[in-house]
Amino acid sequence: MTEFQARTLVDKIWSDHVVETVEDYDLLYVDRHIIHEGSRTPFDILRKHGLGVARPDLTLGTADHYAPTHKPRIDASPHPDMRLMLERFAENTDRFGIEAYHVGARDHGIVHVVGPEAGFTLPGVLLVCGDSHTSSHGALGALAFGIGASEVAHVLGTQTIWQKRPKTMRLYCGGNLTPSVEPKDLILSFIATHGTHVGTGHIIEYAGPVIEAMSVEGRLTICNMSIEAGARAGLVAPDAQTFSYVQGRRYAPGGGAWDEALANWRLLKSDANAQFDMEVSMDAGSLAPMVSWGVSPQMSAPVTDTVPTKGDDMPHLSDEALDAALAYMGLEAGARLLDIAIDLVFIGSCTNSRIEDLRRSASVLKGHRVAVPTIVSPGSNRVRAQAEEEGLDRIFLEAGAEWHFSGCSLCVGMNGHTVGSGQRCLSTANRNFKGRQGKNSRTHLASPSTAAASAIAGRIADPRQVMGS
Q1: Pairing of strands 424-427, 442-445
Q2: Does the pLDDT value for residue 2 go beyond 80?
Q3: For residue 222, what pLDDT is reported?
Q4: Has residue 4 got a pLDDT over 90?
């Protein structure tokens, strides 16, 4: 009798999708594939080789990176190259029979928002997309990761992908998040403590009471930024919250198929004695609202801290890197973060643009006025409609913020909205490297509540001071 071998959740999902193995690489079957308008090159590769799309029914498209958010029309794009990208995407998806959500459509939105929202993302599936933040979808117990253009073409043509199995890491989150401390603060704190390379070569499974108590939307934020910790992907074992979130969504199983799927999904968890290649733990009860001060998510600190100085305990940051970051960001070592003035605020992106994020920002902004230009861009048109049903749009508008349509917008600065040279933007997005939001732009990452509080103050602010918590 063979002795039972305990397996991690990653091991289980990965093994279920192996078609064949050659040396150290596995050919994996892909259950779900999501594409955006950056897929132009993969479609050109298909045409060059006379290939079609193997399973158009398992591919979903949405236009997000170049989508104008001030007006929901392709012709609102400020540059002809942007309009061309959106037009070619519509032509390609139509030609190859792929359902797609184009600018202005009811279901249009950011790729990592509409996938879960539509129930296209399901527990146990292997899901890929030509975008690094595909790790977001792991929040629903999917094995999800970003791929390159040639790999997108391979998936379109064969519904498979070659991959080398990553190592596994478990991040155990103990304690309880205190009021005004959000999932974004947790993941920024983890990256600031352990560096952007801690997850290199690994898939992170998030576990512990904090994760179990966290909403699916919060888990999406955590998994979204796994890539910023260097990981290949992040995921959370599906549970009752996951099943409740998925049930009834457009692509979710129904009827008897739901019961069968649910029985299988309940088995999707790491075995009690499963061995991970790395184990990390953190106490979430000690966390405070976080904000980045430099040019990497690991350059983050509690809002009540000061800009680091040489000699501070920063094992992941050299003195040279510190000097370069401060020079680019225009900051002085030792300055209080709460004294840093900002020029604008962006609330949106695939990290923090869901209804829960908008509710948090609105709860801080209610009854106040913003001191700097503030853009709020919902993650999808469905999120936008729900926010309007709840009256959140009125709160944003009465506070003086701009209420936009869905799209990546200022997160990546590819749709015409950019941060000016030398300007400082506090953003709920996931990346703050040099020029991310525009040439010579300066980006500070924070949670929706911190972003709203900072919009009111016109400088980096502590949401606890506004909310009284």
Answers
A1: parallel
A2: no
A3: 98
A4: no
Residue of 204 and 74 predicted with greater confidence:
204
The superfamily in CATH containing domain 1-288 is Aconitase, domain 3 (3.30.499.10)
Q: Provide CATH 3.30.499.10 ranges for the chain.
A: 1-288, 292-467
* 469 within 8 A of 364, measured Cβ to Cβ: no
Characterize 67-83 residue by residue with b for buried, 16 or more Cβ atoms within 10 angstroms of its Cβ, and e for exposed.
bbbbebebebbeeeebb
Does 121 score more than 90 pLDDT? yes
Tokens for 408? 């990546």
Q: Which amino acid is at 153?
A: A
Chain position carrying tokens 């913003």 = 370
Q: Count the residues in the chain.
A: 469
At residue 203, the 3 state secondary structure works out as strand
Q: What is the pLDDT of residue 312?
A: 87
Calpha distance 35→102 (Å, rounded): 12
**What are the angstrom distances between the C-alpha of 313 and each of 190, 308, 309, 310, 433?**
15, 9, 9, 9, 22
User: Residue 129: phi, psi to the nearest 5?
Assistant: -160, 150
Fold of 292-467: Aconitase; domain 3 (3.30.499)
Q: What is the DSSP string of 378-402?
A: -SBHHHHHHHHHTTHHHHHHHTT-E
pLDDT band, very low/low/confident/very high, at 1 (cuts 50, 70, 90): very low
Instruction: Give whole-number Cα distances, 442 to 251, 418, 436, in Å.
Output: 40, 11, 8
Sheet of strand 99-101, all strands in order from the earlier edge strand to the far edge: 99-101, 59-62, 32-35, 126-129, 143-146
Sign of the Cα pseudo-torsion (372, 378, 384, 390, in order): negative
Which amino acid is it at 89?
Answer: F
- Residue 160 pairs with which residues in a beta bridge? 29
Q: How far apart are the C-alpha atoms of 175 and 205, rounded to whole Å?
A: 17
